[in-house]
Amino acid sequence: MSIGGGFMQEKLDQWINWVEYDELLAGCHNAPHNILGLHNFGKGQVFTVYRPEAKQIFVTNAKGEQKVELEEVGEGSGFFGLYVDGKKYKSDYLLHIYYGENDVVVTADPYAFEPQISSDDLYLFAEGKHYQIYDKLGAHPMTINGVKGTYFAVWAPHARAVSVVGNFNMWDGRLHLMRTLEVSGVYEIFIPGVEPGAVYKYQILTRKGDLLMKSDPYANCAEMRPDNASVVADLRGFRWTDRKWMTSRRKETRDSRRKEPIAIYEVHPGSWRKKDDGTEDGFYNYRELAVELAAYVKEMGYTHVELMGIAEHPFDGSWGYQVTGYYAPTRRYGSPEDFMYFVDYMHSQGISVILDWVPAHFPKDAHGLAQFDGQALYEHPDKRRGEHPHWGTLIFNYKKKEVENFLLANGLFWLKKFHVDGLRVDAVASMLYLDYGKNDGEWLPNEKGGNENFDAIHLLQHMNQVVEKEEPGTMIIAEESTAWAGVTSPAQMGGLGFLFKWNMGWMNDFLEYMHMDPLFRGPNHGRLTFSLQYAYSENFIQVLSHDEVVHGKGSMINKMPGELDAKFANLRTAYGFMYGHPGKKLLFMGQEFAQFREWSEARSLDWNLLGEERNHQMQDYVKALNKLYQEYDALYANDFDPIGFEWMSCENADMSVVTFVRRGSTAKKQLLFLCNFTPVTREDMLFGVPCPGTYKEILSSDEERFGGTGIVNPKVLTAKEEPCDGRNYSIRMTLPPLSVTIYEYDYRENK
Fold it and tell me: Measured between alpha carbons, how far is 169 from 179 in angstroms, rounded to an integer?
């Protein structure tokens, strides 16, 4: 093809690579900056612009001067060119694009800007070690050479071509083709005039010739479901007020965190409370939620809030565990700035924030990560390693360094950008085992013939090491449901490196025990006591989580046997034992006031139940346990040291009675627990105690204020030198039915 017509056009004709021209018009050019923009040619300059539907295009300098018209190459092609004799123009030139007489767009040229991603950035990304890659990939409002706009970058190495499309370019993939950088597979472009709030996707031309419309994996905001485009967001404008909190946090160590009181309130933000305002969902905004939730959490005496998945997800029923936007707080509850406010406000009220984080799998939604550039990219290409058949989701390809980087940086992103204090890593067991949830023939062994996923192990170790270095004082918690050794051992010592692990074994055994009719608990006594055999093998959190009150499992109160009074007595006993057991604590919302219905994400908790005396009393009881928990360091300071716990009696299966002590940092204010798991009052009963001295009852689950029968022991008891339970000293008291009774004592040497 020839442009023809005069010296100027002859020069332009000489400059154009017609192969690139054809690729550009076909929408398959992956280096459009080579042909578009301003280029020096000989003693002059070449301008080329591709704007389909444009009638005329002029170029001026930054001041709007030296206006010249470009000529369209081929009628209706939308490709305009011009040769200018001499070096008259700089990169800050302006395009005046006429679509009609009164429809003129004046803009800087997207193809006049240099990449904002360096070779070092690309190298680190390819090595899996660019821990702030979220500052490079994604959509970032910025000013370059005095021009405001948004810089877009995406990793799509298998793509033939990639464009940014959005409400700023009529979703026309021809207008903003991106260029690929080196051999990285990273595509980028700066688009002038695009501001925060703009809606966009990436249009990806695959090697098969298919066009995909993908949300941005690194986007910081998304449309409200069911729409699924990404939204340009600027995270730089929020004014944090938690400097003291963050400074204090960074001084914490792995060891100091282990010795702190941690009582976690697990919350699903969309259903904790709902507005009765006629809106479809009744969601509270992050800012509204912050004020109400913080007040409630403080009143109840919790130290931490753990939010179920808030990273963007399309399906409410996934509860946030099938993520499509790993770098975006869900739009259901507001903007990224709103979520920043949530965390900042929680910190102002002395409350730590933990997020559920899901690196184990992701859904197959067409706009998400699945087959992102036409091939398996984020997922493992072999279905035997790349899919969870029982969940219908895809598994990350942990071996691929760029995928590892995506996940590592994502964890840090929430800790750094949003000041979150910890991450609870969902479904760790599914990452560790190649055969998790799979039948024979559905999984592929590792190179040694085993079922361990070495790549996932490396990722978790790498993650925990990086977090400990980059954000000391934060906590990474594993939901790991097997007996994998060393989950909370330091990674440099061969462990996975987590700070804490959910105690799933205790939870399953204990709930099964509590579900039994008390008449049958005796023969199953080991389910109550076995957890102490392994209590110090990991840094455990005792959990009664959302997983236990869904899918037909019933609410916590309805797991308890007997009539209504017995159910409440059993639940009070369960909570009392849980708070006495070594390990940090977690309760799911609604359990604190004994909600009767199973939890559903579609409705609010049944707050009306607090008008019922029993439910309100249960709430008061949990409040009292949390108060006691924070007041006595015997309940937390030595959670992970055998010195902190000792059985006084654990073999009285016939009576289903256990007694034990909890020891803190000093000899003062140590605690004796006496637990009766039957509805039988044990009158005038002798119990062995650890030392001489006085024993003062400070809390009983059977107190009338909590809904109990009111059998209490108000008198301070003095230990007598009367052997019992293998101890030299003992106390005599009445043990209420279905109860936990707690005594305070000071340690004294036996003489």
Answer: 18
H-helix or E-strand containing 583? none
Q: Calculate what percentage of the chain has a pLDDT beyond 90.
A: 93
166: enclosing H helix or E strand: strand 161-166
**CB count in 10 Å sphere of residue 182:** 12
Point out which residues pair with 475 in neighbouring strands. Answer: 422
Point out the catalytic residue in the list 421, 426, 697, 703: 426
Q: How far apart are CA 313 and CA 316, in angstroms?
A: 7
**pLDDT tens, position by position, 81-126:** 999 888 888 899 999 999 988 899 999 999 999 999 999 999 999 9
Euclidean distance between CA atoms 31 and 37, whole angstroms: 12
Longest CA span, the chain:
116
- Residue 339 token pair: 């979520």
* All structural domains of the chain: 6-110 (2.60.40.10), 119-231 (2.60.40.10), 261-363+397-572+587-617 (3.20.20.80), 635-745 (2.60.40.1180)
Cα distance between residue 255 and residue 131, in whole Å: 25
CA-atom Rg of the chain in angstroms? 32
For the question of residue 479 being annotated catalytic, the response is: yes
For residue 525, the one-letter residue type is H
Burial 350-375 (b: 16+ CB within 10 A, else e): ebbbbbbbbbbbbbeeebbbbbbbbe
Which residue type, as a one-letter code, is found at position 206?
Answer: T
Q: 497 and 460 in contact (C-beta within 8 Å)?
A: yes
Q: Which of 188, 468, 471, 479 is catalytic?
A: 479
From CA 659, how far away is CA 663, in angstroms rounded?
14
Tell me the residue length of the chain.
751
**Nearest-angstrom CA–CA distance, 91 and 64:** 13
The CA distance from 513 to 359, in Å, is 33
Active site residue 379: no
**Could you identify the residue written with the tokens 């965390």?**
343
